[in-house]
Write a structure and sequence with these properties.
alpha/beta; globular; 8-stranded mixed sheet; 5-stranded antiparallel sheet; 25% strand; 31% helix
């Protein structure tokens, strides 16, 4: 059984993508799930573009994960038993592809190959969605009041998970009769896609689609908190990504003061921090549009039991970043920060100056970490 998983925030984009994907294999079937008000799940199944099943299910405790576990997975199981070779799963808006893939792996009784994880979106809306301060519920993308993710948080998470982004005018554009394909806002959105998801194939209506390129391990590596991936091409256009490293621990107070300046005007800030007040902890930082937060991701490999394997050349086994960044004296510890935003808003020299000013001085390096009375709270957010 072969599966293709499609996530989206826009039902029009999702349906355009699933319709095309349903024609890329023989003996395919397309399933669209929607979670409506009152915990009602609507399921529609298409073959050859024709609707042949429409059912509603009332969930006792309706949520996006329950919809996947209790309806999406059983439906895939049933359709596979009916003999379909390829099942395209159009997930309810707001459902993360990674969560759906994990539930399918756990819940299916037969082997399945995930051919592709696809995100469907309207690139003309991308900039606004990254900066939207409202939750998915407040913006009308989901029916779950407790869903506090923003559209930007959902999209950045999906960019790390998917191998393909299919672009199509969204529902608002279709209802308004807005022929936005090829417009300046559309092209700018496609350019932003290249910065936010440099690994992904961006597929428009006239572009070729490459099936069978999903890689579980690579998707997991991209989505690990603190991991940094940047575009290979650094030619400046409307957007740019600046990468900077700091080899010494950061002073918590100075970094607290610098963080708002690093984050202002950026679409996406991400990386890992070596903070003097928590020197053994690998701190991930992420800023998406108006939100910025920090989280501890455990110990640096150099401070874990696995550090003993460093001298054998196996440092970072299972952690490519640790292996590539390993240093003879401080192992994988260090600060790596990437900032993506509009070219006119991102100043590489200013970022370098801010980060270098946060590093401990020679005198501070000689001090014990217990002297820091201004620890950086992991709950800090902008």
């Amino acid at each position: 059984m072969h599966l293709t998983v499609v996530s989206s925030l826009d039902s029009q984009c999702r349906e355009a993508a699933t319709d095309r994907l349903g024609r890329t294999h023989t003996n395919s079937v397309v399933v669209l799930h929607d979670l409506l008000d009152g915990s009602l799940v609507l399921r529609r199944v298409y073959r050859g573009g024709q609707l042949f099943e429409r059912e509603s299910t009332l969930l006792e405790h309706g949520c996006l994960s329950c919809t996947v576990r209790l309806d999406v997975v059983p439906t895939a199981e049933r359709l596979a038993a009916c003999g379909f070779d390829h099942i395209v799963l159009g997930l309810p808006p707001g459902v993360a592809a990674g969560m759906a893939v994990a539930e399918l792996r756990r819940g299916l009784s037969r082997p399945a190959v995930v051919d592709n994880a696809v995100l469907a979106l309207d690139p003309a809306e991308l900039d606004d969605q990254i900066w939207d301060r409202h939750t998915l519920f407040e913006s009308g993308f989901t029916s779950m009041p407790q869903d506090e993710r923003t559209s930007g948080e959902f999209l950045i998470g999906e960019f790390g998970q998917v191998d393909t982004v299919m672009v199509h005018p969204g529902l608002g554009a279709v209802l308004a009769g807005d022929p936005r394909e090829g417009s300046q806002k559309w092209l700018t959105g496609v350019e932003l896609l290249g910065e936010l998801a440099p690994h992904a194939a961006v597929v428009g209506a006239a572009d070729d689609f490459q099936p069978g390129c999903f890689d579980d391990a690579e998707a997991a590596a991209r989505n690990r908190p603190g991991v940094v991936r940047v575009p290979a091409n650094d030619t400046a256009g409307s957007f740019r990504t600046v990468l900077h490293r700091a080899a010494r621990p950061l002073h918590p107070g100075r970094f607290r003061e610098a963080l708002p300046h690093l984050a202002v005007g950026t679409h996406w800030l991400r990386g890992r921090l070596w903070i003097a007040s928590a020197p053994t902890k690998r701190i991930a930082v992420q800023g998406i549009g108006p939100r910025v937060w920090l989280e501890s991701t455990g110990s640096w490999m150099a401070d874990s039991a696995e550090a003993a394997i460093a001298d054998t050349g196996a440092a970072g086994k299972g952690d490519v970043d640790a292996f590539l960044d390993w240093h003879p004296s401080h192992g994988d510890r260090g600060t790596v920060l990437a900032v993506t935003g509009r070219t006119e808003d991102i100043d590489p020299d200013e970022i370098r100056e801010l980060l270098e000013g946060c590093q401990l001085t020679e005198a501070e390096m000689a001090m014990d970490s217990g002297v820091w009375d201004d620890p950086l709270e992991l709950s800090d957010a902008l």
